[in-house]
Write a structure and sequence with these properties.
Radius of gyration: 30 Å
Shape: globular
Distance between the termini: 81 Å
Strand order of the largest sheet: 12-15-16-17-19-18
């Protein structure tokens, strides 16, 4: 009798190709912060000179789309060892993937955190609406970014999408099958003979009838997603008030779905729903997309070692939205009207005699508040001029910062010249950390005012610091 030969597995070789990074590390910066120097060994094959060599150009080409989406600048310089690549963060917070210059595959990520802290961003988003941010990018996932970002950064917009989806589900007729004591619709005689008669339930009639109701399948998916998000948020809610508030929002939405049981959708099913053509509105498409993020465990953000979505928040726009909420609230208290530049309500065109020399086509103040013969112009500036002036003084201010500060004042004075009123107030509103704002407000230094009278008009210029969110 022949004996069966046993196959032995070849020994496992403990090696890695020299072009694969040992670890998908993340580069982390803050908006408007210092440039981050990239380690070439993470993006190129191992080389004898340990520099970028000829791979610098490949890296720039392969990552320019992602860097542009985040508003980051790639700086190419050189020293005695060859090229040096640095990433300079801009005015956007977010996360993007970085690709290898050799393989073209994602091997790292770049995260830009808000310099005024995540808590401040969360407070502003809660006040101005989660639909405004973040903006998700059509880019690959960012490796390991979940553990660096609070869960509500992604969960907030996901909840907003699911809430809109839930409210938009239309009621319509569908066939419902149920055992009834009285006939309704069409009696299913085959089922009656096989089920009711055999079991001695002569009085139970299986019927099929049209019923007006909402899509139970989609509602069950939404409930499952809400419960998943709520669970993740409560995990960190004890130390994160924004997460706790969103968990309460999740519970409120769940209570609207008590008529269905939660069911986890498959990625295939959601893909079919997206491609079926039945989702005619953007709300439906965004809602199904949000469900898929939760299924892929990318819908909540922080805490885990999973990859996260690519996204960005334009912090200058976020600050402008927050200032708008403050301006509108203060205007309501005094019965004033508000016009908003974002809505093209404050556009003043400039007519140049020679259009070839035109460098600026319009003047657009952010906000114009009118009350009687008094005009207040408010411009939101996502800069730190006020706190820098207080902490370092004008003499220690850098020349670039001085020029930027002067430009801000000249700009708001140009806006003031557009209006014919006996009393004009021009306000520049700058963000401050909550602790700094508290200290300045206690000593009356959160505002700095200058006044001048010209041509029978009184002009008041104010630099005003406002806390970027709450503590």
């Amino acid at each position: 009798m022949a004996t069966q030969k046993t196959r032995t597995k070849p020994p496992r070789l403990n090696w890695r190709p020299n072009f694969v990074p040992l670890q998908k590390g993340l580069y982390i910066a803050t908006d408007h912060g210092h440039p981050i120097t990239l380690d070439p060994s993470q993006f190129i094959p191992v080389q004898r000179d340990q520099g970028w060599g000829s791979f610098a150009e490949n890296f720039i080409r392969g990552n320019e789309t992602a860097l542009r989406a985040l508003g980051a600048e790639l700086i190419l310089s050189a020293n005695k060892n060859g090229p040096i690549l640095q990433l300079r963060p801009g005015s956007r917070a977010g996360a993007i993937p970085l690709k290898s210059s050799h393989t073209g595959k994602v091997c790292s990520g770049f995260i830009v955190k808000p310099r005024f802290g995540w808590a401040g961003v969360g407070h502003i988003l809660s006040k101005t609406g989660w639909h405004a941010a973040p903006q998700f990018l059509p880019l690959p996932a960012v490796p390991g970014s979940g553990r660096e970002i609070p869960p509500w950064v992604i969960a907030g917009p996901v909840l907003s999408r699911l809430a809109q989806l839930l409210n938009s589900i239309k009621r319509g007729y569908r066939l419902k099958q149920e055992d009834l004591g009285m006939p309704r619709g069409r009696i299913l005689w085959n089922s009656y003979l096989k089920e009711s008669v055999v079991k001695g339930r002569w009085h139970r009639l299986p019927c099929q009838y049209p019923d007006l109701g909402s899509d139970p399948e989609l509602r069950s998916y939404i409930r499952w997603a809400l419960e998943s998000i709520k669970k993740e948020l409560l995990r960190v809610g004890a130390r994160d008030l924004i997460a706790l508030s969103l968990a309460l929002l999740s519970q409120g939405l769940i209570e609207k779905l008590l008529d269905v049981n939660p069911h986890c959708p498959t990625a295939t099913r959601l893909h079919r729903m997206l491609g079926s053509g039945g989702l005619t509105t953007e709300i439906h498409r965004h809602g199904i997309e949000a469900l898929s993020w939760v299924v892929d465990e990318r819908g909540m953000g922080g805490g885990q070692e999973q990859d996260g979505l690519s996204w960005q928040i334009p912090l200058e726009e976020l600050w402008e939205n927050y200032v708008e909420s403050i301006v509108r609230e203060e205007a309501r208290n005094v019965g004033a009207t508000v016009k908003v530049g974002r809505l093209n309500e404050t556009v003043f065109p400039l007519y140049w005699s020679d259009v070839t020399h035109r460098s600026l086509g319009h003047l657009v103040p952010d906000f114009v508040v009118s009350r009687g013969d008094h005009i207040k112009i408010v411009d939101a500036k996502y800069k730190a001029h006020l706190v820098d002036l207080d902490e370092t003084g004008w003499r220690q201010f850098t020349e670039d910062a001085k020029q930027a500060h002067r430009a801000d004042i000249h700009q708001v004075l140009a806006y003031a010249s557009l209006f014919d009123a006996s009393s004009i107030e021009a306000v520049l509103m700058y963000p401050l950390r909550f602790e700094t704002w508290n200290e300045l407000k206690a000593t009356g230094k959160d505002r700095s005012v200058a006044e001048l009278n010209a041509g029978g008009r009184r002009l008041r210029v104010e630099l005003r610091g406002v806390a970027f969110g709450a503590a």
